Amino acid sequence: MEIWIVGICVVLGLSAIAIPQLSPQLRSAQATTPCRVVNGHEICILRMKRSAKRYWEYRAQVSVDSIRRPMERYDCRDRLRLPSDGTFIPYWQDEAVDVVCTLFKQRQIRRNAPPASLGAR
């Protein structure tokens, strides 16, 4: 029983020493967000979630030139931004649509590519 308690104390002591040293590295990894520069605007995706019902729709919060936008829907099939007020903004009026929808395009290409075992040319 006493050896068991000593073992737990040693493990807790080592983790108390190791965790504070690793935490700055963990925080810096979490702080990095995918950003792109499009037409002179820095666009960063802060949060992103794919719709389960409509796989081409994403809910994303982006920042454009360090100005955060609220969470909005992005329709990547029709390339639209759908704010909560019911309007729609096409991709040529908003660069963030292309940044958010690049993930959809990559997933669509992977899904449509035939497997190599079928002898695709």
Concise account of the structure shown:
This protein has helices spanning 2-31, 95-112, and strands spanning 35-38, 41-50, 57-64, 67-68, 72-75, 80-82, 89-90. It is α+β, with helices and mostly antiparallel strands and 121 residues long.
Topology, please?
Layout: H1 2-31, E1 35-38, E2 41-50, E3 57-64, E4 67-68, E5 72-75, E6 80-82, E7 89-90, H2 95-112
Antiparallel strand pairs: 1-2, 2-3, 3-4, 3-5, 5-6, 6-7
Structural overview:
The chain contains 2 helices and 7 strands. The protein is an alpha+beta fold and 121 residues long. The chain has a domain at 35-112. Strands 1, 2, 3, 4, 5, 6 and 7 form a 7-stranded antiparallel β-sheet that branches. The longest helix is centred in the N-terminal third of the chain and has 30 residues, at 2-31. The protein starts with a helix and ends in a 9-residue tail after the last helix.
Structural class: alpha+beta
> What share of residues is helical?
25-40%
Shape estimate: globular
Q: What radius of gyration results from the CA coordinates? A: 22 Å
Mean pLDDT: 75
Count of discrete alpha- or pi-helical segments spanning 4 or more residues: 2
Number of DSSP-assigned strands: 7
The profile of the biggest β sheet is: 7 strands, antiparallel
- Report how far the terminal alpha carbons are from each other: 67 Å
Q: Low-confidence parts lasting 5 or more residues at pLDDT below 50?
A: 22-30
How do the SSEs run, as a string of H and E?
HEEEEEEEH
β-strand percent reads: 25-35%
Keywords:
seven-stranded antiparallel beta sheet; globular; single chain; alpha+beta; about 120 residues
